[in-house]
Amino acid sequence: MIFCPLYSGSSGNSIFASSDKAKVLIDAGLPGKHIEKALEHIGQNAKDIDAIFVTHEHTDHTKGVGVLSRKYDIPIYANSATWEAMSKTLGKIKTENIRIIENNYINIKDMDITSYEISHDAAAPSGYSLSHKNKKACIATDLGVFSEEVSNHLEDADVILLESNHDIQMLKFGPYPYNLKRRILSNVGHLSNDDCGKAIINITNSKFKKIILGHLSKTNNYPELAYQTVVNVLKDAKIKLDKDLCLSMAKRDMPSNYIEF
Ligand SMILES: [Zn+2]
Ligand SMILES: [Zn+2]
């Protein structure tokens, strides 16, 4: 499989993944042109995308979904509550490209996609696990809490994009209005750097994982701080980098971590 976050952060999210035969995007939260450019950058072409999966209706995950579907005739997959919440903002979508995920499972060619519930302030937000043969990649961002359900899906994954959204002190003392701070810190908000580190302790086991930290806040975090905070939490738990797991950062503005596994 190939797994590559094209963009990751509060300003827009999109992830490319492929198996031998299937090519998919998870979210397309930037203008279509940006997604096309990012795909080109990693040697892919938007016309070859078989499906776009949507995690939830917030615009940092959906901005380019409608445009790409119309331009390249790509089916869009989401659960029914997410469809209801996002359909107005997507614009006109061909009936046959409106695909509703039922029973949390979809198969695209030789790729199996399972969705799972995440805790976030959207209609019915989902994480996704993508598998092919015995390989598995998971997306877990926009998490108010790191639930047992999410943990169960992640513990046997090879590659994980995990949220490390904010530094709690930067958020608390930063410029956001009080209500927004409370929303982000709530159990339907976003995972802090500290909580991200604790989440990783939870899923560290005999299965070696490549973990990519992503969905960083532009205002309340920066990559070096996120990385170091997580490393410190792992060190305290005696988890060894590159032996127990490997850690990297997703980039906000360009493709990162092109992982073949
Ligand atoms: Zn969101
Ligand atoms: Zn988001």
TrEMBL record:
Domain of life where this protein originates: Bacteria
Enzyme Commission number(s) from the entry: 3.-.-.-
Domain Metallo-beta-lactamase: 11-190
SMART domains cross-referenced by the UniProt entry: Lactamase_B
GO MF annotation terms: hydrolase activity
Pfam family for this entry, one: Lactamase_B
Protein name: Putative metallo-hydrolase YycJ
Organism: Clostridium magnum DSM 2767
Chain's gene name: yycJ_1
